[in-house]
Amino acid sequence: MADVKGPTIASNKMAMSRALGAAFLNHQVQQLEKTATTRASAPRGAPAKPARKRDGETTEIDEEKGRQGGGKAEKDADIIVVDASVLVHAIHQVKKWCRDGREEIVIVPLEALNTLDLLKKGMSSLAQRARAASRVLEAQVGTNQRIRVQRDDAFVLWDEVFENQAPPTGSPEWVRRTICCARWEVNHAADEVDASLVNAGPGKVGGTQPRVLLAVLSQAPEAQSEAVFIPNNHLSASPVPLPAPQTNRHEPRSSGALVALWAAKAGLKVLEVPPTPSAVNGTPRNTSPGGDGAALPPRPPRRPNEDERAKRGGRRNSYLRNGERGSSPVTVRPGAGTGLVERPPAVMAMMEAVAQPSRVVRVLARGEKLEPDT
Bias category Basic and acidic residues: which stretches (predicted)? Predict the structure, then answer.
Protein backbone atom coordinates (compact mmCIF):
# COMPACT_ATOMS: atom_id res chain seq x y z
CA MET A 1 0.00 0.00 0.00
CA ALA A 2 2.89 2.35 0.82
CA ASP A 3 4.54 1.52 -2.50
CA VAL A 4 1.41 2.58 -4.39
CA LYS A 5 0.98 5.89 -2.49
CA GLY A 6 4.61 7.00 -3.08
CA PRO A 7 4.48 7.13 -6.91
CA THR A 8 1.05 8.76 -6.79
CA ILE A 9 2.26 11.68 -4.63
CA ALA A 10 5.32 12.17 -6.83
CA SER A 11 3.23 12.25 -9.99
CA ASN A 12 0.81 14.77 -8.44
CA LYS A 13 3.68 17.06 -7.47
CA MET A 14 5.11 16.85 -10.96
CA ALA A 15 1.75 17.69 -12.55
CA MET A 16 1.25 20.64 -10.19
CA SER A 17 4.71 22.01 -10.98
CA ARG A 18 4.04 21.83 -14.71
CA ALA A 19 0.70 23.57 -14.28
CA LEU A 20 2.26 26.41 -12.26
CA GLY A 21 5.06 26.81 -14.81
CA ALA A 22 2.57 27.02 -17.67
CA ALA A 23 0.48 29.61 -15.82
CA PHE A 24 3.57 31.72 -15.10
CA LEU A 25 4.63 31.66 -18.76
CA ASN A 26 1.13 32.68 -19.89
CA HIS A 27 1.21 35.62 -17.48
CA GLN A 28 4.60 36.77 -18.80
CA VAL A 29 3.39 36.56 -22.41
CA GLN A 30 0.33 38.67 -21.59
CA GLN A 31 2.44 41.33 -19.90
CA LEU A 32 4.81 41.54 -22.89
CA GLU A 33 1.92 41.85 -25.33
CA LYS A 34 0.36 44.62 -23.25
CA THR A 35 3.66 46.53 -23.09
CA ALA A 36 4.19 46.25 -26.85
CA THR A 37 0.66 47.51 -27.53
CA THR A 38 1.14 50.51 -25.23
CA ARG A 39 4.42 51.53 -26.87
CA ALA A 40 2.95 51.21 -30.36
CA SER A 41 -0.01 53.44 -29.51
CA ALA A 42 2.11 56.23 -27.90
CA PRO A 43 2.73 59.31 -30.17
CA ARG A 44 6.30 59.64 -31.41
CA GLY A 45 6.43 63.42 -31.53
CA ALA A 46 5.36 64.04 -27.93
CA PRO A 47 7.65 66.45 -26.07
CA ALA A 48 9.83 65.00 -23.35
CA LYS A 49 8.93 65.62 -19.74
CA PRO A 50 11.12 67.88 -17.60
CA ALA A 51 13.78 66.02 -15.65
CA ARG A 52 14.00 66.33 -11.86
CA LYS A 53 17.33 66.85 -10.16
CA ARG A 54 18.38 65.82 -6.66
CA ASP A 55 18.33 69.35 -5.27
CA GLY A 56 14.76 69.95 -6.50
CA GLU A 57 15.55 72.09 -9.55
CA THR A 58 13.66 71.33 -12.78
CA THR A 59 15.80 71.15 -15.90
CA GLU A 60 13.85 72.17 -18.96
CA ILE A 61 14.78 70.02 -21.96
CA ASP A 62 15.13 71.95 -25.19
CA GLU A 63 12.20 71.81 -27.55
CA GLU A 64 14.35 70.60 -30.41
CA LYS A 65 15.10 67.41 -28.46
CA GLY A 66 11.45 66.68 -27.73
CA ARG A 67 10.23 66.85 -31.29
CA GLN A 68 11.63 66.07 -34.69
CA GLY A 69 12.27 68.81 -37.21
CA GLY A 70 11.71 71.65 -34.72
CA GLY A 71 13.57 74.96 -34.93
CA LYS A 72 16.58 75.76 -32.79
CA ALA A 73 16.33 77.90 -29.69
CA GLU A 74 17.02 81.57 -30.30
CA LYS A 75 20.43 82.59 -28.99
CA ASP A 76 20.82 85.56 -26.70
CA ALA A 77 23.96 86.86 -28.43
CA ASP A 78 26.93 85.67 -30.45
CA ILE A 79 29.44 86.42 -27.69
CA ILE A 80 28.58 86.82 -24.00
CA VAL A 81 31.11 88.14 -21.49
CA VAL A 82 29.95 86.96 -18.06
CA ASP A 83 30.57 89.01 -14.96
CA ALA A 84 31.38 87.44 -11.60
CA SER A 85 27.90 88.38 -10.35
CA VAL A 86 26.33 86.07 -12.95
CA LEU A 87 28.68 83.23 -12.06
CA VAL A 88 27.86 83.51 -8.36
CA HIS A 89 24.14 84.31 -8.34
CA ALA A 90 22.90 83.10 -11.76
CA ILE A 91 24.80 79.91 -12.45
CA HIS A 92 21.63 78.39 -13.92
CA GLN A 93 21.90 80.77 -16.89
CA VAL A 94 25.54 79.80 -17.45
CA LYS A 95 24.53 76.13 -17.47
CA LYS A 96 21.86 76.95 -20.04
CA TRP A 97 24.45 78.51 -22.33
CA CYS A 98 26.68 75.44 -21.89
CA ARG A 99 24.08 72.98 -23.16
CA ASP A 100 24.40 71.14 -26.45
CA GLY A 101 22.52 72.87 -29.22
CA ARG A 102 23.29 76.41 -28.01
CA GLU A 103 25.48 78.70 -30.12
CA GLU A 104 26.56 81.40 -27.67
CA ILE A 105 30.29 81.86 -27.08
CA VAL A 106 30.82 82.49 -23.36
CA ILE A 107 33.92 84.46 -22.34
CA VAL A 108 34.97 84.32 -18.68
CA PRO A 109 37.21 87.28 -17.72
CA LEU A 110 40.30 86.58 -15.66
CA GLU A 111 39.07 89.07 -13.07
CA ALA A 112 35.89 86.98 -12.63
CA LEU A 113 38.04 83.95 -11.78
CA ASN A 114 40.01 86.08 -9.33
CA THR A 115 36.73 87.15 -7.70
CA LEU A 116 35.63 83.53 -7.30
CA ASP A 117 38.92 82.72 -5.58
CA LEU A 118 38.39 85.59 -3.13
CA LEU A 119 34.79 84.66 -2.33
CA LYS A 120 34.92 80.87 -2.06
CA LYS A 121 36.66 80.77 1.32
CA GLY A 122 34.48 80.17 4.35
CA MET A 123 31.16 78.52 5.21
CA SER A 124 28.76 81.30 4.17
CA SER A 125 26.16 80.87 1.46
CA LEU A 126 28.14 83.28 -0.72
CA ALA A 127 31.22 81.07 -0.43
CA GLN A 128 29.16 78.00 -1.29
CA ARG A 129 27.82 79.69 -4.43
CA ALA A 130 31.34 80.70 -5.46
CA ARG A 131 32.60 77.14 -5.04
CA ALA A 132 29.68 75.80 -7.09
CA ALA A 133 30.49 78.24 -9.90
CA SER A 134 34.15 77.18 -9.82
CA ARG A 135 33.15 73.53 -10.19
CA VAL A 136 30.94 74.31 -13.18
CA LEU A 137 33.74 76.21 -14.92
CA GLU A 138 36.25 73.44 -14.21
CA ALA A 139 33.92 70.94 -15.86
CA GLN A 140 33.18 73.09 -18.94
CA VAL A 141 36.42 74.91 -19.77
CA GLY A 142 38.57 72.71 -21.99
CA THR A 143 35.68 70.33 -22.74
CA ASN A 144 33.15 72.72 -24.25
CA GLN A 145 34.69 74.72 -27.12
CA ARG A 146 32.21 77.57 -26.64
CA ILE A 147 33.20 78.21 -23.01
CA ARG A 148 36.48 80.10 -23.00
CA VAL A 149 38.64 81.99 -20.54
CA GLN A 150 40.06 85.40 -21.37
CA ARG A 151 43.52 85.24 -22.86
CA ASP A 152 46.35 87.18 -21.28
CA ASP A 153 46.56 89.63 -24.20
CA ALA A 154 42.78 89.96 -24.75
CA PHE A 155 42.25 93.43 -23.31
CA VAL A 156 42.44 97.09 -24.27
CA LEU A 157 43.83 99.98 -22.30
CA TRP A 158 41.47 101.97 -20.10
CA ASP A 159 42.20 105.16 -22.08
CA GLU A 160 41.07 103.46 -25.29
CA VAL A 161 37.68 102.49 -23.87
CA PHE A 162 36.43 106.09 -23.91
CA GLU A 163 37.07 107.50 -27.37
CA ASN A 164 37.48 111.24 -27.92
CA GLN A 165 37.05 112.00 -24.24
CA ALA A 166 39.02 111.86 -21.06
CA PRO A 167 38.49 108.60 -19.16
CA PRO A 168 36.54 109.09 -15.92
CA THR A 169 38.19 108.33 -12.63
CA GLY A 170 36.99 106.68 -9.47
CA SER A 171 36.39 103.16 -10.77
CA PRO A 172 37.99 100.19 -8.95
CA GLU A 173 40.75 98.28 -10.67
CA TRP A 174 38.72 95.05 -10.92
CA VAL A 175 35.90 96.91 -12.68
CA ARG A 176 38.35 98.36 -15.19
CA ARG A 177 39.75 94.95 -16.03
CA THR A 178 36.28 93.54 -16.68
CA ILE A 179 35.29 96.50 -18.88
CA CYS A 180 38.56 96.32 -20.83
CA CYS A 181 37.99 92.62 -21.49
CA ALA A 182 34.47 93.24 -22.77
CA ARG A 183 35.68 96.09 -25.03
CA TRP A 184 38.34 93.84 -26.55
CA GLU A 185 35.70 91.22 -27.35
CA VAL A 186 33.59 93.88 -29.07
CA ASN A 187 36.54 94.96 -31.21
CA HIS A 188 37.51 91.37 -32.14
CA ALA A 189 34.07 89.74 -32.25
CA ALA A 190 34.40 88.72 -35.90
CA ASP A 191 37.65 86.84 -35.23
CA GLU A 192 36.14 84.96 -32.28
CA VAL A 193 33.06 83.93 -34.27
CA ASP A 194 35.10 82.87 -37.31
CA ALA A 195 37.33 80.70 -35.11
CA SER A 196 34.24 79.12 -33.59
CA LEU A 197 32.78 78.38 -37.05
CA VAL A 198 36.02 76.75 -38.14
CA ASN A 199 35.99 74.50 -35.08
CA ALA A 200 32.32 73.64 -35.72
CA GLY A 201 33.16 72.11 -39.11
CA PRO A 202 31.97 72.66 -42.68
CA GLY A 203 28.51 73.97 -43.42
CA LYS A 204 28.75 76.95 -41.06
CA VAL A 205 28.81 80.32 -42.81
CA GLY A 206 29.34 83.63 -41.04
CA GLY A 207 26.64 86.24 -41.49
CA THR A 208 26.13 89.71 -40.09
CA GLN A 209 28.16 91.58 -37.51
CA PRO A 210 28.39 89.49 -34.32
CA ARG A 211 26.50 90.74 -31.30
CA VAL A 212 28.48 91.05 -28.04
CA LEU A 213 26.81 91.49 -24.64
CA LEU A 214 28.14 91.86 -21.11
CA ALA A 215 26.04 89.66 -18.78
CA VAL A 216 25.47 91.30 -15.39
CA LEU A 217 23.12 90.44 -12.53
CA SER A 218 19.82 92.29 -12.88
CA GLN A 219 19.43 93.13 -9.19
CA ALA A 220 21.84 93.37 -6.30
CA PRO A 221 21.36 90.47 -3.85
CA GLU A 222 21.27 90.80 -0.09
CA ALA A 223 24.31 90.24 2.07
CA GLN A 224 25.19 86.58 2.11
CA SER A 225 28.57 86.42 3.82
CA GLU A 226 27.29 85.45 7.26
CA ALA A 227 27.87 81.89 8.44
CA VAL A 228 25.27 79.28 7.64
CA PHE A 229 22.69 78.91 10.43
CA ILE A 230 22.91 75.59 12.28
CA PRO A 231 19.68 74.18 13.77
CA ASN A 232 19.49 74.10 17.57
CA ASN A 233 22.46 76.44 17.73
CA HIS A 234 20.69 78.46 20.43
CA LEU A 235 21.16 75.58 22.89
CA SER A 236 24.80 76.35 23.59
CA ALA A 237 26.57 75.03 26.66
CA SER A 238 28.94 78.00 26.74
CA PRO A 239 27.59 81.22 28.32
CA VAL A 240 30.11 83.29 26.33
CA PRO A 241 28.40 84.92 23.32
CA LEU A 242 29.73 84.09 19.89
CA PRO A 243 31.55 86.80 17.92
CA ALA A 244 29.54 88.82 15.45
CA PRO A 245 29.67 87.47 11.88
CA GLN A 246 32.24 89.24 9.74
CA THR A 247 31.17 90.23 6.23
CA ASN A 248 33.46 89.49 3.31
CA ARG A 249 35.11 92.70 2.14
CA HIS A 250 35.09 91.39 -1.44
CA GLU A 251 31.33 90.85 -1.47
CA PRO A 252 30.59 94.02 -3.54
CA ARG A 253 32.31 92.28 -6.44
CA SER A 254 29.43 89.80 -6.66
CA SER A 255 26.67 92.41 -6.85
CA GLY A 256 27.25 93.53 -10.44
CA ALA A 257 26.08 97.09 -9.72
CA LEU A 258 29.43 98.78 -10.36
CA VAL A 259 30.11 96.75 -13.50
CA ALA A 260 26.71 97.63 -14.95
CA LEU A 261 27.23 101.32 -14.13
CA TRP A 262 30.63 101.58 -15.79
CA ALA A 263 29.57 99.42 -18.73
CA ALA A 264 26.84 101.94 -19.51
CA LYS A 265 29.41 104.77 -19.36
CA ALA A 266 31.71 102.83 -21.70
CA GLY A 267 28.92 102.28 -24.22
CA LEU A 268 28.76 98.49 -23.81
CA LYS A 269 25.52 96.58 -24.27
CA VAL A 270 24.46 94.88 -21.05
CA LEU A 271 22.41 91.68 -20.69
CA GLU A 272 20.63 91.65 -17.34
CA VAL A 273 20.32 88.13 -15.91
CA PRO A 274 17.89 87.38 -13.05
CA PRO A 275 19.40 85.63 -10.02
CA THR A 276 18.78 81.98 -9.27
CA PRO A 277 15.90 81.53 -6.79
CA SER A 278 17.22 80.62 -3.35
CA ALA A 279 14.47 78.05 -2.60
CA VAL A 280 12.95 75.95 -5.36
CA ASN A 281 9.34 74.79 -5.05
CA GLY A 282 8.97 76.57 -1.72
CA THR A 283 11.57 74.46 0.08
CA PRO A 284 13.07 76.52 2.94
CA ARG A 285 16.80 76.54 3.50
CA ASN A 286 18.79 76.91 6.72
CA THR A 287 20.77 80.10 6.25
CA SER A 288 21.67 83.09 8.30
CA PRO A 289 19.18 85.95 8.71
CA GLY A 290 21.07 87.92 6.08
CA GLY A 291 21.37 84.98 3.70
CA ASP A 292 19.46 84.12 0.57
CA GLY A 293 16.85 81.97 2.29
CA ALA A 294 14.63 82.30 5.32
CA ALA A 295 16.06 80.75 8.45
CA LEU A 296 14.12 77.89 9.88
CA PRO A 297 13.02 78.41 13.50
CA PRO A 298 14.60 75.84 15.82
CA ARG A 299 12.29 73.08 16.90
CA PRO A 300 11.85 72.67 20.66
CA PRO A 301 12.94 69.28 21.96
CA ARG A 302 10.10 66.84 22.46
CA ARG A 303 9.50 65.88 26.10
CA PRO A 304 7.03 63.21 27.11
CA ASN A 305 4.11 64.30 29.23
CA GLU A 306 4.42 63.20 32.82
CA ASP A 307 0.68 62.65 33.13
CA GLU A 308 0.57 60.37 30.10
CA ARG A 309 3.60 58.48 31.38
CA ALA A 310 1.86 57.94 34.73
CA LYS A 311 -1.29 56.70 32.99
CA ARG A 312 0.74 54.20 30.99
CA GLY A 313 2.17 52.91 34.23
CA GLY A 314 5.67 54.20 33.72
CA ARG A 315 8.54 52.49 31.96
CA ARG A 316 11.81 50.94 32.88
CA ASN A 317 14.06 53.14 35.03
CA SER A 318 11.30 55.74 35.28
CA TYR A 319 11.17 55.94 39.09
CA LEU A 320 11.81 59.54 40.06
CA ARG A 321 13.64 60.74 43.12
CA ASN A 322 12.32 63.54 45.28
CA GLY A 323 13.25 66.88 43.77
CA GLU A 324 14.25 65.46 40.37
CA ARG A 325 11.69 66.37 37.66
CA GLY A 326 8.86 65.29 39.98
CA SER A 327 7.69 65.17 43.54
CA SER A 328 6.58 61.55 43.93
CA PRO A 329 7.87 58.30 42.47
CA VAL A 330 5.83 56.69 39.73
CA THR A 331 4.76 53.19 40.66
CA VAL A 332 3.24 50.43 38.60
CA ARG A 333 -0.24 49.49 39.65
CA PRO A 334 -0.60 45.74 40.09
CA GLY A 335 -3.00 44.20 37.62
CA ALA A 336 -2.75 47.08 35.16
CA GLY A 337 -2.42 45.89 31.60
CA THR A 338 0.69 47.86 30.68
CA GLY A 339 2.42 45.09 28.77
CA LEU A 340 5.58 45.48 30.88
CA VAL A 341 7.14 43.01 33.29
CA GLU A 342 5.80 43.76 36.79
CA ARG A 343 8.23 43.69 39.69
CA PRO A 344 7.56 41.74 42.88
CA PRO A 345 6.23 43.66 45.91
CA ALA A 346 9.52 43.16 47.77
CA VAL A 347 11.49 44.81 44.98
CA MET A 348 8.97 47.65 44.83
CA ALA A 349 9.32 48.26 48.57
CA MET A 350 13.11 48.29 48.28
CA MET A 351 12.98 50.77 45.39
CA GLU A 352 10.73 53.08 47.37
CA ALA A 353 13.13 52.87 50.30
CA VAL A 354 16.08 53.70 48.06
CA ALA A 355 14.20 56.71 46.70
CA GLN A 356 14.15 58.26 50.19
CA PRO A 357 17.33 60.39 50.52
CA SER A 358 17.21 60.44 54.36
CA ARG A 359 17.44 56.68 54.81
CA VAL A 360 20.50 54.50 54.28
CA VAL A 361 19.91 50.96 53.06
CA ARG A 362 22.66 48.37 53.22
CA VAL A 363 22.43 45.17 51.20
CA LEU A 364 24.69 42.15 51.54
CA ALA A 365 26.34 40.52 48.55
CA ARG A 366 23.78 37.67 48.52
CA GLY A 367 20.83 40.11 48.46
CA GLU A 368 19.81 40.17 52.13
CA LYS A 369 18.60 43.52 53.41
CA LEU A 370 19.97 44.94 56.65
CA GLU A 371 17.98 47.22 58.88
CA PRO A 372 19.24 50.83 58.94
CA ASP A 373 21.13 52.05 61.98
CA THR A 374 18.97 53.88 64.50
Answer: 64-74
